[in-house]
Amino acid sequence: MAYALFIGDYSYSSWSLRGWLLFRRFGIDADIHNVDFQDKDVAQQMARHAPARTVPTLVMDDAVVWDSLAIAEELASRHPEAGLWPADPGLRALARSLAAEMHSGFGALRNECPMNLRTAYADFTPSDATKADIARIEELWAHAQKRSDGPWLCGDYSAADAFYAPVAARIAGYGIAVSAPAQAYVDQHLNDPAFRRWRAMGFAKGATLPWYARDHAQKPWPGPAPIPAEATDTGTPENQTCPYSGDPVTHLMRMQGRTFGFCNAFCRDKTVADPEAWPAFMQLLEA
């Protein structure tokens, strides 16, 4: 079965993050297609895959699935071995309930705090409605982790965690105060290698979109600080082929006084953004 996953901007599309994690976190291959949030209406760009009008959208040989929760269920049906939902029936029911409430709720948090992985804010004060959403989220997280004994919401990482990854990003990015256990769960997402790779790709592909910005003082991103690296046009790379594609080197990066090569600007720039997020590069670095 060939899968084509259409996603929006890495830095801003919270629903796309959920859809992408459902593939990458569970080892399911898909060809990724980026829908441009800057130049065209999303529905217009998705017209050839009607009735889809939004992202993420999954296009398969026999169907089009244009809703993230439907994508989760369809992948779980087609790949039961992948473990998108917990094997334990009680935890599976809990995970599905958690994902469904996230999918349909928390409108105040969504509207007041659009996901923006390019920046973090220092002086945001949530409205009463957003505070109520956060209180409910904390209640759900505490119940799930008490029931499952962690480390994620329902034991091992499940589709429910993929659905709450953008919620964690909002709490972190807007500096919203939560309990210590809830903050620990947020930090798990910020440290998750798949989440870090997604965020790094946002700096490598796509522009800063001003309509997502909010008028608050900015602060450094609260997640792990990346190893400093920079793109360069000069130097002799240690490697002759790209660590990701195996294709010949055309673009260069400098880090820790060493020069490395990649097959295109995207491969280089996503690595510059967060070198430790990319196992293939780290193997090259440590070789």
Automatic annotation (TrEMBL):
Gene3D superfamilies: 1.20.1050.10, Glutaredoxin. CDD domains: GST_C_3 (cd03194). Residues 3-83 form the GST N-terminal domain. InterPro entries: Glutathione-S-Trfase_C_sf, Glutathione_S-Trfase_N, Thioredoxin-like_sf. It holds the Pfam family GST_N_2. PROSITE patterns: GST_NTER (PS50404). Coiled coil: none annotated. PANTHER family: MALEYLACETOACETATE ISOMERASE. This is Glutathione S-transferase. It comes from Tropicibacter oceani. The lineage of its organism: Bacteria, Pseudomonadati, Pseudomonadota, Alphaproteobacteria, Rhodobacterales.
